[in-house]
Write a structure and sequence with these properties.
The protein has one domain: Four Helix Bundle (Hemerythrin (Met), subunit A). It is built from 5 helices and no strands. Helix 1 runs antiparallel to helix 2 and helix 2 runs antiparallel to helix 3. The longest helix has 24 residues.
Amino acid sequence: MSAGAFSDIFADAAGGYAADLVRAAREHDAPSLARLAHRLRGSAAMYGFHQVSAAAGVLEASLTGVKTASEVKDSPHIADSALELARLCERAARREPSARR
């Protein structure tokens, strides 16, 4: 399988990740945000989407110790990080070259 085919695997899933991130951010769903950030940090790196991986790492770190919706709601940094990660996932889904940085 070529490198392009591997990156297509991630790109095909990235739109769904973006939608899930937006939903979880709107609902202040700390467990879902943490799960998505962790999954994206690893899988994006594996498929060569290093900017997505780095943004996922930022979100994951900002969620350390956060358990409740009120804690997410009280931290605008978490919502901003989640929405930035969602934007990067959307770029990956559109297969924009800049998403692979």
